[in-house]
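To whoever picks this up:

The nightly regression suite flagged NADH-ubiquinone oxidoreductase chain 3 as changed. Nothing in the input moved, so I suspect the structure step. Input below, exactly as stored in the fixture:
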Amino acid sequence: MNLITTMIAIATTLSIVLAIVSFWLPQMTPDHEKLSPYECGFDPLGTARLPFSLRFFLVAILFLLFDLEIALLLPLPWGDQLPAPLTTFTWATIVLALLTLGLAYEWVQGGLEWAE
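Regenerated output under the current build:
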């Protein structure tokens, strides 16, 4: 048996054993506190389903967008070592300009206003 087959067999066996143990290991006797909506034992006074502002999603999407921008620009110093560093710099500038224009457009349209 070669090394890859051995590693796949060990990983599969370990996964199956852990899945089987995870079904049998936990206690199956839930008590009153565990069955309550809150584990502190108090009954909820109101509904937990309050209306959620979509502005929070806007902040999350902007964070992901600019986090992705950082991930795309991370290899830029290594790209400068290529035979054509001007091409790398041009593409990085285009990405930054596109994101900046999109942010400016959203700002002008009022998409970033928190309170309406």
